[in-house]
Amino acid sequence: MEELVFIILGMAAVTYVPRALPMLYQRLESLHFLKYLPVAIFSSLVFPDLLVVDSQIAISGKTLAGLAAFMVAWRTRNLIATMVAGVAMLYLVNA
Amino acid sequence: MQSLVQGQTMQGMRKIRMCFSDAFPIIVGYFSISVAFGVLAQKYLGMYAVMMSALVFAGASQFVALQMLIHKSSALLIVLTTFLVNLRHVLMSSYMSALYSRINAGRIKRALVSFGITDETFAIASKRLKELPDANYNLGLNFLCYVSWITGTAVGLLFGNVIPLNVVDALPFALTALFITLLVLSVENRVDVAVAAIAAIVSILLGFLPVGWNVMIAALVACALGGVFERWKS
Q1: How many separate domains does chain B show?
Q2: Option in A24, A26, A36 nearest B107 (CB)
Q3: Nearby residues of A86 by Cβ (< 8 Å), 6 or more positions away
Q4: B156 and B57 in one domain?
Q5: Cβ distance B103 to B132 under 8 Å?
Q6: DSSP string, A32-95
Q7: How close, in Å, is residue A78 to chain B by CA atoms?
Q8: What is the pTM of this model?
Q9: Staple partner for B219: which of A40, B61, B68, B72, CB 3.0–4.6 Å?
Q10: B86 or B209: whose pLDDT is higher?
Q11: Does A32 touch chain B (CB under 8 A)?
Q12: How much is the pLDDT for B10?
């Protein structure tokens, strides 16, 4: 169990450092280069989740749920409506 | 004087309400994912699962670490993998750092805000801080999400056997839906569309890499090309 504590503390340290270093020490105005970061991050988090299953490109329940979520997001521009639609669709497809 | 004080309280109330309403979707998503984490970790980590959620607070890496613990990987390898999975936060922290050049916040506040930077809190805060440049708002948002993450882990540990598995399976999709909404809301022009498309393609093609790496490389490549496209256009 002691090893487990050591592992968790190690994980905590290596997770915190990348989170904090730029916030604490970077003074340069890097906003311009990173202007597109949010769009790029959202997209690269979403699409593999919708289209990749076990390192293979595949249509799955998540693909359909994602399509539904995209449509609702486009129409309503509403976060909660999109979350409900996506989860409900995935639940129905998997049921 | 009276009205000024009242005005400030109203401001404060508005800020708190904004924290809650912005955090709400993440709270729901985090709660369901951390319940799943608690359920899965029950057998291998016991109460240490809560300790991990409290100290690490990074979903993907915790699931990866759990998987590695189950397969009896070495401690060093688990820590190293966690580092690689979470290295992408460097990008978000840099973006936040630039936003914070216009925000009045001391070292301690910045250090605390940094602890709470996740894909999800970054997604919300990077938008909201542009109109509400306030470190306390950011701290509040992160804190609410953090509490949800720890509470969910504990609930998963304690009530794991009661929750139907197909419900546990579908709920985490709430976070994907959250990113879908933010993606749709953030795409405003052709360069944005190009950046999103490049990020999607690169992250899918690099899907064989360890978790987190495809996101970081795809985001960097798409960001840089976005800058190039912008120059072409003008």
Answers
A1: 2
A2: A24
A3: A65, A66, A68, A69, A72, B173, B174, B176, B177, B180
A4: yes
A5: no
A6: TTTTTHHHHHHHHHHHHHHHEETTEE---HHHHHHHHHHHHHHHH--HHHHHHHHHHHHHHHH-
A7: 7
A8: 0.82
A9: A40
A10: B86
A11: yes
A12: 58
For residue B126, pLDDT beyond 80? yes
Range of the domain at B210: 189-234
Q: What is the pLDDT of residues B41-50, one digit of tens each?
A: 888 899 999 9
A20: nearest CA partner in chain B: B114
- Residue B171 has a pLDDT of 75
Question: Which tokens in the block code for residue B38?
Answer: 């608690």
What pLDDT score was predicted for residue B3? 44
Position A29 scores a pLDDT of 56
Which parts of chain A register pLDDT below 70?
1, 27-33
Q: What is the DSSP letter of B155?
A: H
Q: Does A20 touch chain B (CB under 8 A)?
A: yes
- pLDDT tens for residues B131-169? 999 999 999 999 999 999 999 999 999 987 777 777 777
**Domain range summary for chain A, segments of one domain joined by +:** 2-94
Q: What is the CA radius of gyration of chain A?
A: 19
End-of-domain residue from the set B171, B186, B201: B186
The mean predicted confidence, pLDDT, of chain B is 88
Residues B140 and B170 in one domain: yes
Q: Read off the pLDDT of residues B188-200 as tens digits, 9 standing for 90 and up.
A: 999 999 999 999 9
Q: Given this model, what pLDDT does residue A27 score?
A: 60
- Same structural domain for residues B173 and B207? no
- Is residue B233 located within the same domain as residue B167? no
Nearest to A13 by CA among B157, B27, B78, B37: B78
Do B169 and B135 fall within a single domain? yes
Specify whether B180 is located in the same domain as B208. Answer: no
> 3-class SS at B2?
helix
ipTM of the complex: 0.87
Q: Does A71 touch chain B (CB under 8 A)?
A: no
Q: Does A93 touch chain B (CB under 8 A)?
A: no
